[in-house]
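Section: Multi-chain targets

For targets with more than one molecule, the full set of components is provided together so that the structure can be written out for the assembly as a whole rather than chain by chain. Components appear in the order listed by the source. The example entry contains two components.
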Amino acid sequence: MHLSPSPNPPVEKEGFDLWIEAGHAEKHYWLDLWHYRELFFILAWRDVAVRYKQTVAGTAWALFQPFLSMVIMTVIFSRVAGLPSIGNAPYAIMVFAALLPWQFFSSALSASGQSVVSNRDMISKVYFPRIIVPTSSVLVSLVDFLVSLLILAALMVWFRFPPVWNLSALPVFMVLAIVSALGAGLVLTALTVQYRDFRILVPFIVQFGMYVSPVAYSSDLVREKLGAGLFSLYCLNPLVFVIEGFRWCILGGKCRLLESPMLVSLAVSFLLLAFGIAYFRKTERSFADII
Amino acid sequence: MKEDVVIRVEGLSKKYFLGQQAGGAGGLRHAIEDAVSAPFRWAGRAVSGARVPRRVAEETEFWALRDVTFDVRRGEVVGIIGRNGAGKSTLLKLLSRITEPTRGCIGLKGRVASLLEVGTGFHPELSGRENVFLNGAVLGMRQDEIRRKFDEIVAFAGVEKFLDTPVKRYSSGMYVRLAFAVAAHLEPEILIVDEVLAVGDSEFQKKCLGKMHEVSTAGRTVLFVSHAMHSVQALCRTGILLNQGRIETMGPVGGVIAAYSNGAREETGGGGDIASNRSLGLSLKTATLRQEAPAGTLVVSAHFHLDKTISNAGLGIHIETADGVELCDLRPETTGLAFGDRKGPLHISVVMEDLSRRLGAGTYRLGLSFHETNWRSCLERTIIGEFVVPAFDVYASGYPPKYEKDGPVVLPVRLLHAE
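Its structure, encoded as tokens over all components, is:
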């Protein structure tokens, strides 16, 4: 391009607050994101408000679904299959400790994947940093997560299972859950805008993901039965670290989070987020054209 | 003068692909192919930074905008006109950053608000109150800003009683009023408006026009896209005519509109004028409004051309307020502005005197119509321009009647008796 002299004299761009140029990533993006920070909460609030306006049971649904999943998994995997729990923790609590991040992850993934497509009216008529849309739907799932912490409290009271000091580290693992959910969510959002096939694929990805994550069973079992080699492969799943982290916080016991396969899982979460943001930023510029 | 430029557009181009869209109606085979190849394509792109083309053969390029360059100075009100597909909406979308240019660049100075639609982001399940906050945030307003203007917005929309009703139960009029009220309270330095005026009843359209007029007189910069030539003419001083993605003409709005009408008429094989009736061979070539001394005197000059004889030709004069409220529609049988049977060029000058004794101080618009046998209208009312009625202390009270305050019409009122 620089071989042929430009036919136009260089353009005077001094003094403009905003300079948009073809193919140039905007320097204003993160500043804009800060300017629009309120929109992020407003969109999340809208989704929560609308859901509770249209449903009869409202908040109860956020409790009902994880509770029922926990009951079924406990019955099938503990009573029927006879899998062991971790330490002396009741199987129900072990399962629920994993269901908390898993439910958050899966609902965040499904919601953010749909978010841009279902807000297409806004996307094609108004400018704002597009990343707000999938991010705010992750926030909605976070609300559900906080509500379902109530079940955990109830379970701990029911089984007379006292909390351990590790619980104070839970926010750290929550942040990691958000990192993985946002990373995967951003990739899926961008893909869904370009290829609507992913609308159909997401439920399958979520279902598949539950089997390859240590939700209904503990990851120790995988390590024992499949050996170290396959376990390393298993740890490419970023949720392995997050879920086992939750279990460590809630159940206590020996900490195996710092072993190398587990750290791979942790690294994958951050790589996923970095890739998610980069890929989303790359595609979002054309969202309005292809949506 | 340079520092006064608030919008600079240089060599702006936008390319779209026609036909096959990814994941679109390409059939199952293509969809799967796309889905399968997608990760490889983006992986390839992410690694090499180069674009890996996707079935280019099936896509056709289409330049919606091509090498568009212009500057807009602070306080200018620019009308963007052109036929469907000329690139108007694409230009607005680029300026409001909804989509990115393929080539070229845009410089913007100051806070930009774009209004390509009223009620963007409104959710039917939410109440009017909630939607004001939601819509405000979507348009880029801060929550405290909305809270501050909330009462004003609600009053403007006139929906106080229904604030806590879900907007799905609103009548369409209420809905549009509320949506416009939010948008109207944005305080941008640059306002970009698409044909929002096309929605809603005529009452609402007038309200929109009035508000936009207000914005423009407050010294803000407005870019306005419309098909309605009379609103473009009434609001804008500068015009840009787009044709097939390129700027065809740019300059004072009258000339640009004339060029547009020419283009439209060339299509159908007519001549070039402000307005015309081809079947009768009647056209309005030029029309001017001149304010003269003493204050409150207005001279209207119009040059018609009649290809065929029109019997009992007459001129109709129409006056409305800047926000579109009709004040009078004077027909030739009433005013006596009739010229018998005419053919060929017809130059008419009409003087209107003492306007400030009859109209409140403010801005008004004047339109002309042409009539034939039985005073039938054969050239629909065309707004030819605006005039300003200066303040005049009719009642000798020290407070001259103003349109804003006292309404448009000034009637003789004198105290007879008070006890």
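The two ends of chain B are 62 Å apart (CA to CA).
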